[in-house]
Amino acid sequence: MRSRARNGWLLIASVLFYFWGAGSAILAIVFVALTSFGGAYIAWLIARRYARLLPAGSVYKLTIPSAVTILIVLVPLISFKYIPQFATLQVPVLSSALSSMGAASWVLPLGVSFFTFHAVSFVIDSAREGRPLTKSFPSYLLYLFVFPHQIAGPIVRYSEIGSQIEGVRRISSRQMGYGITRFTWGLAKKVLIADNCGVIANAMFDNAANPDSLSGAGAWLGALAYGLQIYFDFSGYSDMAIGLAQMFGFRFPENFRAPYTASSVTDFWRRWHITLTKWFQDYIYIPLGGNRRGVWVEYGALLLVFLLTSLWHGALVGFLIWGGMHSAALLFERITGLRKVKSFVLVRRCLTLIFVLVAWVPFRALEAQKSIDIWQAMVLGPWDFTSPELLVSLTPFTLTAMFVGSLSFFMGSRQTGFETIFGKAEAVTMNGFRWKTAWALVPITLAGTLAMVLQADFSPFLYFQF
Length: 466
Prior knowledge:
Elements: H1 3-22, H2 26-49, H3 64-73, H4 75-86, H5 92-100, H6 112-129, H7 137-145, H8 147-150, H9 158-166, H10 173-205, H11 216-247, H12 265-271, H13 274-285, H14 295-313, H15 317-336, H16 345-365, H17 368-380, H18 388-393, H19 396-406, H20 417-422, H21 435-455
């Protein structure tokens, strides 16, 4: 099948997939697609028209039309993600005005943060390139709609897969086998580990409103469970997306690389949600000056990046506290030089892991007082399990999931869990992949995972809410 026909069928399937999951919210992604592609194209035409006004040898960079395009592209994200949260604030005039608009009931379009960031990267990269990255609207639509990364990432840039969309994609049996293995691996992480760890996390956090039911042991167990849940849930989705993309001939970038083996908070952010970190680095941190214009500019840019990272997850106090903790830790490591320390690796890994787990508390609790109560229990105890809900959650399935998930703390820091078991495969030929291991494990794992899916309640991916 020719690439154009293959792309056409894949685009139709992706549109139907999104419409099936989101219904009329598909209008949001259509709006983003039209404005970002059209805006990038118009900005290029305007730049060509007034090229004589630009310095010799320059491209048009981020002109006013490009900036306006970005602001328009952000309208659905701001409207559906943040305005409803503002409607709940205890500000009479603001909340009354927004409530009269029905803002509190606006439904967040599925994957709006991700496809908006994809569109913004296209506009900015087109401006930097001096021309639209593609003049084919169907190719651009496929980039935004292709379903493996449409809802929860990884955040892929058009420059990373544009040649794969517009060129000839040859899908070999080896690539298909790798994709199936990677997809199965991610599904197992989600169903067998994340969902079971989530049972324990929910039991602690959902009952933390009653401080009398909190204990030090329960608080730490709940924080550990949530740390494992969010990692295996989100990285599992990324594995599934990478695997599915491979089956369709696309190569997506890695989004996680053993983050819980990080030896510093700086190192953690090189390993956690890598595509988001790189997005903010390339489009916010570096353009503001990065580390090239003195420490005050560097620190200011860092704080802004983590404020935006917090807001990207939502305009709730828990996300802001979480982002504030990480930005403070990053600043501390830069000021003291700890991020460059190479010795005492085991100690630094333990301290980093403890910090990351403690910082997950407000991210999950969302409320400041609930977070404080949990932290207080972590420090002061009592050191027994006083919550009957938490005790009920400790089943053979959940405890096994906690044990297996905790192995991620002790794995090597240079490979992902997938690479540790199946080997590191070369992108095209798949050389280095352990096929015998895949043939032995995939059928058993897939059968067990599907059996668990059929008998369990529906459990959406955590990052669908972002």
